[in-house]
């Protein structure tokens, strides 16, 4: 139960009793009849929050109270709870005025377009196929507002979107439905000899029976040296296999294999490889590939001595067999005892197999055409298919006239000569291009309401926590009309928090909140920080998103974001931090010692990198990401379940004790934190933190917590 709903919760603030006396005591002296700084007077400020000019002044006052600018530091400050009450009262008045304005102007519906991530996830859950929304053939990139990608007024619709949505609908339905023969699976294999041996040398080695002994040596920093064209005829899931060894110095970096598809801009495989030269392993992953010709680069993604982007030896005439057949002019990969001095990949083959189908027809086809091949393929059957499909896609029941329009599309396509299945697919394309699918629609012109109905609540809940459509359980409760009941809703939130799909929220929210996609925008100078690479950058972002996920799933205190005695590291990031004892690529929870000078978000490399210009860190820029010490709470309209309002949950004040534990985060009178002298530290290197622990705090989501939101 939220704190404001408890029996002992304070009553709503009254202006004449609670707000006016405080403003008169602390504000009117500088903004009154005798003195009006910035030509702003509080004593004559109208309380008509529906007037834009007045609402603007009150909003500015609330923001300045929330940021600690009012009252000024050199003036007496009232207790934090009194300031919080003023800010809360202003927020409540603004929200009520906005609700009244919408009611007066007839704004009875709201629309918010699905983001690219939400579209991809919805297609996955609706049809069971993968749509690569971020590929060039996918959807345009979503605009953001201060990092957040789900702002309805920012998510616009262009002619390009319409074209992309139509193409996407055809693509995903073509993969989900069996409207033709089963695609033939094929295997494409590039052997080391294919990659390294040319002309007469190939015939000579084949005659000697040693052509299959050739290995492709992939040196560090090989860039675009090893690249081949991959011709994919049918889009779908493909198995990618690579047989290779990975040599590296005992105390140095491991070789890192990356298969990168340049035309679609994403890696198909990326992994550290640490195996002896004579004990290769086979790495196997699945990747979704669109049709077409793709340039695949085989990269050893570690920094190394290859300034001229040249191979280790003349590949056409002197292929590699083992480290002992070294050529005098080759790049030196081993010492005199043949021990590796640079991380090197030795590749035997790269193989692509697919498209892979678990069954035929695909599961989505059998689910949609539920009656099987023996069904009577008439209008009634088409109507039932489209009703079921559109109900899931629109995330609500359809009106009879909506179903009639879809059936008419299918009937028209059949009259033009299409088969029953193809005509139904045409109507399904119309469903996937409808605003009812592409937008989250709330409200109704015919039945205006100030609250969400159960179907709208199910969608809002699922897209908030899962970034995808409601599942069967949410739809069932919405159909029963019980989802809005507090006990039911609370139980569903708990269930959804335990579902693996919550990982989508755990990854996307911190990326947007902290603007992590800007990490690497100013890449560190290679001359100053030669060890900085893409693997480190991904690990930096992974630490922050993983940290948020751990706090969320373990129901930890919000104070962990400010100071913690643990973090998530893999070997690459731990080496960058100088923390020993961490192995492997996976990010794991690691305890921190005071000497590590880590803990919380502010000491993480991704956050430090965001406030770096590529040559040095700039900690004063970090202040804009965090509230000042001891800010008042900010709260808006206390709405019940389903209320259409932009409510912002009240956040507990950050105490001076916490602020002092991170001295560089809140600059004092000087804009330069103490201890900034000395040599430059690389991006992501934190300054020493004042030792000491912070007091434990109850998490708002903790069971039995008095401030736990419903």
Tally of DSSP β-strands: 13
Question: Strand fraction band?
Answer: 5-15%
Number of helices: 20
Q: Major beta sheet, specifics? A: 5 strands, antiparallel
Helix content: 25-40%
Radius of gyration: 31 Å
Quote the distance from N terminus to C terminus. Answer: 5 Å
Structure, described:
- The protein is of the alpha+beta class and 710 residues long.
- The protein is 34% helix and 13% strand.
- The chain is built from 20 helices and 13 strands.
- It has helices at residues 15-26, 52-66, 80-105, 116-127, 159-176, 192-196, 199-208, 363-368, 379-394, 400-415, 420-432, 435-438, 454-465, 472-480, 486-498, 502-513, 534-553, 571-577, 605-610, 656-661; strands spanning 109-113, 186-191, 216-218, 227-232, 236-247, 255-261, 266-273, 281-289, 292-300, 344-354, 439-443, 566-569, 588-591.
- Strands 2, 3, 5, 8 and 10 form a 5-stranded antiparallel beta sheet that branches. Strands 4-9-6-7 form a 4-stranded antiparallel beta sheet, with no helix packed on it.
- A hairpin with a 4-residue loop joins β6 (255-261) and β7 (266-273).
- α1 (15-26) packs across α3 (80-105), α2 runs antiparallel to α3 (80-105) and α5 (159-176) runs antiparallel to α11.
- The longest helix is centred in the N-terminal third of the chain and has 26 residues, at 80-105.
- The termini are close together.
